[in-house]
Design brief:
By secondary structure, this protein is of the alpha/beta class. It contains six helices and five strands.
C-alpha cells in the first residue's frame, strides 16, 4: 500500500510482549479500514536519531492513535513518559503546524476512562477512550473513529472486523510456522506483510 498523508495513521503505544494483543488489533484494524499504520518500529537504522524519526512520522500522518495505558512506574519506580511525550508532539503539530498539519485527528486510549487524570490533568475535558485491555474493544473503537473521522463509505462494520481479526489471530501461528518466524516475537514489518497478504486474499 502506497503511503500518503490522508491514509497514514501514527501509532504511539508500548511495544512490549504483554501489549502485543492490543497492538496487533490496532494494526489489523487500521489496515482493514484502508489505512496504513506507521510507528517507530518501521525502520531500524543505528544512524537515525529516534526522536527525529518520530517527528518525521508524525509530520507524515493525518491520524494518530495514542495509548497512555502504560504511563506507569516500571520496576525501577520510574514512570514511562514516551507515550505522553509523543502525544504532545502530535498535539503541537496540530496546534502550531501549517494548514495540512492542523487537520490532524487523534484517538487517545487508556486502560480505564479516567485513569489519565492521575498523571496528566491537562487532558481533562478530552474524550479519552477506555479499552480495558480488550482487543475487541480496540477493534471497534479504532474502526468507529476512522469511520467518523474520514467519512469513508468503504469501511466495514465493527462486527465484521472483530470476526476477521479473531480468525486471523487463530491462523497466525500456522502462518508464522510456514514462514519460519516466532509467533510471539514477530517483527513489525513482518506482521504488516502478513496482515496485508491475508487481507488481499480475503478481499480479492
Amino acid at each position: 500500500m502506497q503511503a500518503n498523508y490522508s491514509d497514514s495513521v501514527f501509532i504511539n503505544c508500548p511495544f512490549d510482549s504483554q501489549y502485543n494483543p492490543i497492538f496487533r488489533a490496532i494494526v489489523f484494524t487500521v489496515y482493514r479500514c484502508g489505512f496504513l499504520p506507521v510507528c517507530a518500529l518501521d525502520e531500524d537504522n543505528g544512524l537515525d536519531n529516534r526522536l527525529r524519526k518520530i517527528e518525521k512520522q508524525i509530520q507524515s500522518c493525518q491520524y494518530g492513535i495514542h495509548d497512555l495505558s502504560r504511563a506507569e512506574q516500571n520496576s525501577a519506580a520510574f514512570p514511562r513518559f514516551n507515550m505522553p511525550f509523543e502525544l504532545g508532539i502530535f498535539w503541537g503539530a496540530k496546534k502550531f503546524g501549517n494548514q495540512r498539519q492542523r487537520g490532524k485527528n487523534a484517538l487517545i486510549f487508556d486502560s480505564d476512562k479516567y485513569r489519565y487524570q492521575q498523571f496528566i490533568s491537562d487532558l481533562n475535558g478530552v474524550d479519552i477512550k477506555a479499552h480495558h485491555n480488550d482487543p475487541a474493544i480496540v477493534v471497534r473503537t479504532v474502526r468507529d473513529w476512522l469511520k467518523t473521522s474520514s467519512k469513508r463509505t468503504t469501511i466495514p462494520g465493527h462486527n465484521i472486523i472483530i470476526r476477521e481479526f479473531r480468525d486471523f489471530t487463530q491462523n497466525l501461528p500456522g502462518i508464522c510456522s510456514n514462514l519460519g518466524i516466532d509467533t510471539e516475537d514477530i517483527l513489525f514489518n513482518d506482521y504488516c506483510l502478513i496482515v496485508e497478504e491475508s487481507l488481499r486474499k480475503k478481499l480479492e
